[in-house]
């Protein structure tokens, strides 16, 4: 930053995704510190991922959608004013008046006001039961209304476009029965044609949506409970709430009031440099009508933001036009549209593959000589999207029908020229990605970091993988310096050879003596392929500290004890025992988020004494220390809850007893919710089960941690037997193929084909290994024995539980606690104490 530079002020009105991108672009390029930025954000939250709005449902965690760096911490040249909007513009004085009464002078004013939902003037549209679907506040209101309406109530969505189907999915997740009303004769009319619309309607209907196409909404009237919605064909729907998702309009009122030129259909008119009719005012994103045209997707919005940042720093960038391609997964259904999808180009020809049995529809639009790709539509299976979209306007590498036929040609990355756009969100070409690979980006995270490709919607990630493969970059799969094989390959070796010791494995397939990476990994593999106790023989020396003492090591050298409570159930006698143990051994007691009780502060020599009491009371190890099943969380379900649709506690108990002790690459957490209200937070777990009226929906790949992930639907409406069979297969497939310390979410994402591939393997047995996976799980279930009960019966194992080998009766004198406050807390001798209020944060 140059302190001698005369600093100018840019006022940004709006802090959505595009406004945030503009600030990021300007600040990253403004190395001299020429511009100070003031952002006016009408919402109380800083910029968040509005494209991913539907993922808010269930988690209800706004922070999960927050865009990186959206608070500009430590940047003294950016001032973010939350909860303040721009009320008026004085163009002559170059000043903006805010909703709080402040007057801000500007050198450049950037309007990033976005759009607002269009609500058709239907009688009753302003009823309290009517909502729009645009912000997190909107979703909070919909959630409250859904809870008031009750599970199974009807929710009507007016509009069957992209956002309309997302809104319908949100209502479904909230336990409502969605009805979608679309005035056009098909769903998503802007993206798909009649054929694709027919397949799409069938697919979403199979998922529980009721679709009304070719009709409008005539009126909305108050009813005894909720509203009565009358359609133009005289159909009457009794609904708990209505969500309008009938399109958006550019939010341009402040520009109109200031006398700026606006388009005949709305939008702030700009030139190709995004400059409005006032040379000091710019418009970006959905509110901008670039030479009279508004663009409603995030990718062109990002482009406009980059151009204005460039212009303010003396550049001459111009809007190059927009790629309006979209690839979506709505309600678990793939939908993709790119280029001239509807074939409006003169002489255009269409090649269509419509497989009603599989529920897929593929259409390519080509030139009149069938040599140039103009566009396409994919419904049900959009695997080919990442390879086809960059070819729009270019010669086809094969016959059109072969490119969309399951038995046809596979389009590789080498078919694309260097200037082909791979990432449309961030305008990254194949050449730029290959350049990053040549300079050392040898994996997907590296490419993302260097080029920003794949950091927005993620639709281009499969092509990034192909480019890596094409480049010849060899990524090491070695577990560590002692084994050249990956964890999955070592698993197969152990399974096939029957080797049961680390020494035998490293002698034949590795080198050296091993390390703290390969030893616990092999220990986990050996535990996953047999029911041997982890402290038997040589295996004991492979374990990390937690597994070595079958307890979680705490910060002051003590351990925690967590008995298993399947489904959160515990008897009164067991609770009394836990209380007596805690009192006798002076333990700190805490109820965990996994519906169990954790006892903290046990010394190593006390562990067998504590577990003797717990085992005698009928309790067993909760495996809180292991890379294995932790808990199966549940709500009370249909047994007690008036909204419950299935016995979630019973299913949770069954699952926890089935998978207890199952060693895996990382910890496993499961949950069972008795209805779509999701009280057990099942979609945040590795395996989540949610009850429906007709059975169970199975979700997989949900993880917490630094990068939380929602679980995605693997299969729906399952009976008990099929549910358990699919979970058996999923868990065993994960255990066999995942990398070391890889959670289910990144494992799932790294699989070629992702969730669709998993569905084929788990539900359709595409690899022919289903029986083998089920048999392996059956072997685990049959061989399970509580680890602590086995320790108590074995003097050799018990001899491990001492603080000092040469003085087994002596306690560790370095362990102490502070019990002066309300909580017992560990004291670290020789280190500064951590204030009680911040411990565990």
Question: What features would you describe in this structure?
Answer:
The protein is an alpha/beta fold. It contains 25 helices and 39 strands. A hairpin with a 6-residue loop joins strand 38 and strand 39. The longest helix is centred in the C-terminal third of the chain and has 18 residues, at 720-737. It starts with 7 loop residues before the first strand and ends in a 14-residue tail after the last strand. The model is unreliable at 829-841 (pLDDT under 50).
Can you give me a brief rundown of this structure?
With 841 residues, the protein is an alpha/beta fold. The longest helix has 18 residues, at 720-737. The two termini are 36 Å apart.
What is the mean predicted local confidence, pLDDT?
Answer: 88
| Number of helices, where a helix is a run of at least 4 consecutive DSSP H or I residues | 25
Output the structural class: alpha/beta
Report low-confidence residues grouped into runs of 5 or more.
Answer: 829-841
Percent strand equals 15-25%
The first-to-last residue Cα distance is: 36 Å
Q: Helical percent range?
A: 25-40%
Total beta strands = 39
């Amino acid at each position: 930053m140059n302190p001698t530079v005369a600093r100018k002020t840019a006022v940004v009105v709006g802090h959505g995704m595009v406004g945030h991108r503009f600030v990021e672009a300007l600040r990253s390029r403004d190395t001299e510190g020429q511009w100070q930025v003031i952002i006016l954000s009408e919402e109380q939250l800083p910029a968040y991922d509005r494209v991913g709005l539907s993922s808010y449902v269930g988690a209800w965690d706004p922070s999960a959608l927050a865009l990186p760096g959206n608070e500009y911490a430590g940047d003294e040249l950016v001032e973010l004013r939350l909860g303040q909007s721009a009320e008026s513009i004085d163009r002559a004085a170059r000043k903006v008046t805010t909703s709080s009464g402040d007057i801000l002078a500007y050198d450049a004013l950037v309007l990033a006001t976005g759009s607002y939902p269009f609500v058709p003037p239907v009688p009753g549209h302003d009823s309290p039961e009517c909502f729009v679907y645009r912000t997190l506040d909107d979703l909070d209101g919909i959630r409250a209304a859904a809870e008031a309406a009750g599970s199974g109530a009807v929710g009507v969505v007016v509009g069957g476009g992209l956002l309309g189907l997302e809104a319908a999915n949100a209502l479904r997740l909230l336990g409502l029965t969605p009805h979608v009303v679309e005035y056009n004769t098909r769903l998503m009319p802007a993206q798909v044609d009649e054929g694709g619309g027919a397949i799409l309607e069938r697919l979403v209907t199979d998922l529980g949506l009721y679709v009304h196409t070719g009709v409008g909404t005539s009126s909305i009237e108050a009813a005894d409970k909720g509203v009565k919605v009358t359609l133009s064909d005289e159909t009457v729907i009794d609904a708990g709430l209505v969500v309008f998702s009938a399109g958006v309009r550019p939010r341009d009122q402040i520009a109109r009031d200031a006398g700026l030129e606006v388009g005949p259909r709305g939008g702030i008119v700009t030139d190709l440099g995004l400059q409005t009719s006032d040379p000091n005012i710019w418009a970006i994103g959905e509110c901008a009508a670039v030479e009279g045209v508004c663009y409603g997707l995030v990718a062109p919005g990002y482009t406009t933001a980059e151009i204005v940042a460039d212009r303010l720093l003396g550049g001459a960038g111009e809007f190059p036009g927009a790629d309006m391609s979209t690839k979506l997964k709505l309600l678990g259904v793939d939908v993709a549209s790119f280029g001239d999808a509807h074939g409006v180009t003169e002489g255009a020809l269409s090649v269509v593959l419509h497989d009603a049995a599989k529920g897929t529809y593929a259409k390519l639009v080509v030139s009149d000589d069938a040599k140039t790709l103009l566009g396409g539509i994919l419904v049900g299976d959009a695997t080919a999207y990442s390879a086809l979209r960059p070819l729009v306007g270019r010669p086809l590498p094969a016959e059109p029908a072969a490119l969309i036929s399951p038995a046809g040609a596979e389009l590789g990355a080498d078919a694309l020229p260097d200037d082909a756009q791979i990432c449309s969100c961030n305008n990254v070409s194949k050449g730029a990605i290959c350049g990053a690979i040549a300079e050392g980006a040898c994996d997907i995270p590296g490419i993302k970091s260097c080029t920003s490709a794949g950091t927005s919607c993620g639709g281009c990630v499969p092509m990034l993988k192909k480019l890596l493969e094409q480049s010849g970059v060899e990524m090491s799969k070695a577990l560590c310096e002692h084994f050249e094989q990956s964890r999955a390959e070592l698993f197969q070796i152990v399974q096939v050879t029957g080797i049961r010791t680390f020494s035998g494995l490293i002698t034949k397939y590795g080198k050296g003596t091993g390390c703290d990476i390969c030893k616990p990994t092999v220990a986990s593999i050996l535990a996953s392929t047999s029911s041997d106790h982890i402290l038997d023989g040589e295996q004991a020396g492979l374990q990390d500290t937690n597994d070595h003492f079958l307890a979680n090591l705490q910060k002051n050298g003590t351990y925690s004890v967590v008995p298993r409570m399947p489904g959160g159930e515990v008897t009164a006698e067991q609770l009394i025992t836990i209380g007596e143990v805690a009192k006798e051994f002076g333990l700190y007691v805490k109820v965990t988020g996994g519906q169990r009780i954790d006892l903290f502060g046990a010394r190593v020599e006390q562990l067998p004494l504590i577990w003797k009491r717990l085992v005698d009371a009928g309790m067993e190890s909760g495996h809180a220390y292991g890379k294995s099943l932790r808990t199966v969380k549940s709500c009370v379900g249909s047994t007690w809850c008036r909204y419950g649709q299935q016995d979630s506690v019973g299913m949770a108990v069954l699952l926890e007893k089935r998978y207890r002790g199952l060693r895996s690459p990382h910890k496993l957490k499961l949950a069972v919710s008795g209805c779509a209200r999701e009280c057990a937070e099942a979609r945040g777990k590795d395996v989540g089960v949610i009850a429906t009226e007709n059975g169970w929906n199975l979700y997989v790949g949900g993880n917490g941690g630094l990068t939380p992930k929602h679980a995605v639907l693997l299969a729906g409406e399952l009976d008990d037997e099929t549910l358990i069979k699919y979970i058996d297969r999923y868990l065993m497939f994960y255990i066999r193929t995942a990398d070391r310390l890889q959670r289910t979410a990144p494992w799932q994402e790294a699989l070629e084909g992702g969730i669709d591939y998993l569905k084929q393997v788990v539900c359709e047995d595409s690899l022919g290994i289903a029986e083998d996976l089920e048999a392996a799980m059956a072997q685990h279930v049959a061989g399970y024995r509580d680890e602590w009960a086995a320790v108590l019966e074995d003097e050799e194992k018990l001899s491990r539980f001492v603080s000092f080998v040469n003085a087994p009766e002596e306690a560790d004198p370095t362990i102490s606690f502070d019990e002066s406050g309300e909580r017992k807390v560990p004291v670290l001798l020789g280190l500064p104490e951590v204030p009680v209020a911040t411990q565990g944060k």
